[in-house]
Amino acid sequence: MPSPASQEAPADVLVVGFGPVGQVLSILLARRGWRVTVVERWPRPYPMPRAVAFDADAARILDAAGVGAHLSTFGEPSEDYVVADASGRTLLRIGLGHDPAHRWPVSTSMYQPGLEAALAERAALLPSLRLLRGHEAVRLAARENGAALTVRPTDGGPERVLRARWAVGCDGAHSMVRAATGARLSDGGFALDWMACDVTPHRADDFPRCNVQIADPARPRVAVSAGPGHRRWEFMRLPHETPEDFGTTANAWRLLALFGVHPDNATLERHAVYTFAARNADRWRAGRVLLAGDAAHQMPPFAGQGMCSGLRDADDLAWKLDRVLAGAARSELLDSYEAERRPHAQGSIDRSVALGRLICLTDPVAAAHRDRAMAARPGADRARTAPPAVDTPDGGLFHRADDGGPGPGAGLPVPPSVLGAAGHLGPDPVLLTTGDRAEPCAEGALERAGRWRLVLRRLRPGNAADAPLTAWLESLGATAAVVRPDCRLYGLARTPAETEALVRALADHYAPSLEPAP
Questions:
Q1: Distance spanning both ends of the chain, measured CA to CA
Q2: Is residue 384's pLDDT more than 80?
Q3: Which pTM was predicted?
Q4: Considering the chain, what percentage of its residues have pLDDT values greater than 70?
Q5: Which tens digit of pLDDT belongs to each residue from 148-159?
Q6: Any idea what the Cα angle at residue 214 is, between residues 208 and 301, rounded to 5°?
Q7: Of 337, 311, 228, nearest in space to 19 by CA
Q8: How far apart are CA 424 and CA 103, in angstroms?
Q9: What is the mean pLDDT of residues 319-338?
Q10: Which residues does 198 contact at the CB level (< 8 Å), separation at least 6?
């Protein structure tokens, strides 16, 4: 057991796990001035990729974490998402082409070690962020006013007790933090073994960038870009194959030969068999302990939303923890984290499962029926635009209508084209107003909402930077809107009176008591 001398001054937040989700969360908190201690059991960064893509919203979050200028060094715009049959016929094409009007590509193929290196470099510049690599979290005790984490150095040194006002488990699918909270994982009933082969072509031009899911019942397989100069091929284990035989290096090269990949033209950097799952924890908060990323949810890879969902967790949690730590909101605000993010993650899980069931068919008769039905649709080989995943906010920090349901615009994301033209809206909520029609609000309600650090941005007629935001508000029939730090709408208003009511409602949300800050 650790001795009293091994106990240390408490941090504001303890983060367990320093993968991309833990990195982004700790950076966003430390950038706001909070003392963050991160515990990571591996003494050095893992040198191989796991995730291979992120979407435009994840790019926005990474930019907020301070690495936006580095994204092109380890990422490149993804090709269209294509599902093809065994003969190569296109069954589904989702257009991912980059619109220059958007700041970030719809999807970016990336090399994960490059992303993690950029985030680690950014974290090292923040004086209030302390990283303990080579420390394994072994026990977690949650208390009314914080959490105590016992860690053990992986080199065999003595245990230490770390304390913080809040603790967040970003420690992956086998989360120790989740186990300590007693949270249970749902089972989506869809789990299969696949082998991922990460390859560096000797000549990149020999294997052009692609993003193809081959729905071949004889061997479902995937070919995707994994960042500049890197490629990934994945193969499903068939029912008659044993895991031991399937996972050998010889079998990896045999399967790669399906794509013309062999030792003379490529280097196999890594091959690993993994089992994907569709799971969501039944609770994401237990007192002063919260879950994020794979510790809270896991999903099949087919929609490319696993890491993206974790980054959204970090984004949502960071600004809410900031307000609670500052004493500007009651701790119940953090219940809105689960209320918002858990259903959103479940939607991503469900979409990933639906794509996976489409691609992973091994019954030739069922696959042939699927192919005929999909190929018969008009324009099956033409690019379609994937609709944005908009989840109606039944709970959480959104404006409410008189009947208790979501108010006008609540939960809508700011479109990428608008963000691309308007620039970064900042780390705090923003009140957008057109002209002087919301001027009365600036006199009273804004001061009342000061604990949210609400920023007033008046959209000026004729201003090029403001024009996209003005046009967007007009398209929604509004003259004002409150935009949250995660670039989702808190709510809309059409008149000065509605604007004042909107801001007053925000001011009253989770208003702190007169007791000391937690």
A1: 28
A2: no
A3: 0.94
A4: 92
A5: 999 999 998 899
A6: 90
A7: 311
A8: 10
A9: 94
A10: 48, 49, 226, 230, 231, 232, 268, 269, 270, 271
User: What count of other Cβ atoms lies within 10 Å of the Cβ of residue 252?
Assistant: 23
Q: How many residues does the chain have?
A: 518
Do 313 and 296 touch, CB atoms closer than 8 A? yes
Q: Phi first, then psi: what are they for 99, rounded to 5°?
A: -90, 120
167 phi and psi angles, rounded to 5 deg? -135, 145
> With the C-alpha atoms ordered 458, 461, 464, 468, is the resulting torsion angle positive or negative?
positive
Residue 285 CA neighbour count, 13 Å, CB half: 19
- Which pLDDT belongs to residue 387? 58
301 residue type, one letter: P
CA distance 227 to 68: 16
Q: Give the C-alpha distances (Å, rounded to integers) separating 347 from 20, 21, 189, 403.
A: 21, 19, 15, 25
Q: Does residue 132 contact residue 250 with C-beta atoms inside 8 Å?
A: no
Distances (CA, A) of 262 to 26, 209, 307, 367, 517: 41, 18, 30, 29, 61
Question: Among 253, 217, 227, which Cα is nearest to 50's?
Answer: 227
Give the confidence band of 438 by pLDDT, cuts at 50, 70, 90. very low
Residues of the chain with pLDDT > 90: what percent?
A: 71
Across the range 484-489, mean pLDDT stands at 91
Q: Where are the alpha helices (DSSP H) in 93-233?
A: 112-124, 176-181
